[in-house]
Sequence to fold (141 residues):
Amino acid sequence: MERYIAFDIGDKRIGIAVSDPFNTYALPSATYWRKGFRQDIEALLKIVKEKGATTIVCGLPVNFDGTEALQTQKTARFIEALRQEADIPVVCEDERFTTVMAHEVLISEGMRREKRKNYVDALAAANILDGYLNKINKRTN
Fold:
């Protein structure tokens, strides 16, 4: 059975979300605080195994108009390293607006700024995964 895990890869934190058992929606899971490139790859692959994921979905940051941003290249390098090490597929999903949407949800719930950084990345990862799940579920229906 398929199980998806999504990463919202940032310079300081990586948000993590997983699919529900039926792959219809995404559940925010955790925020991983980065320690170093190699260590981060190993830690994420361990989480992938723990969650029983069969596909990794990584958010790819691009500019509003779809062109590459500086962050696109950094993130692509990290995703490529994940691909080299993972024994399951690693796919990219456009992550435009996912972090903005996550902030808006947390602000609307009255969460204070210092607390938001612990949740915003996992929520952004859930938004990334929801976008991916919507696409694949449309194909199969």
About this structure: Residues 96 and 131 are 11 Å apart (CA to CA). The first helix runs from residue 37 to 51. The chain has one domain: 4-140. Strands lie at 4-9, 13-19, 26-33, 55-60, 90-94.
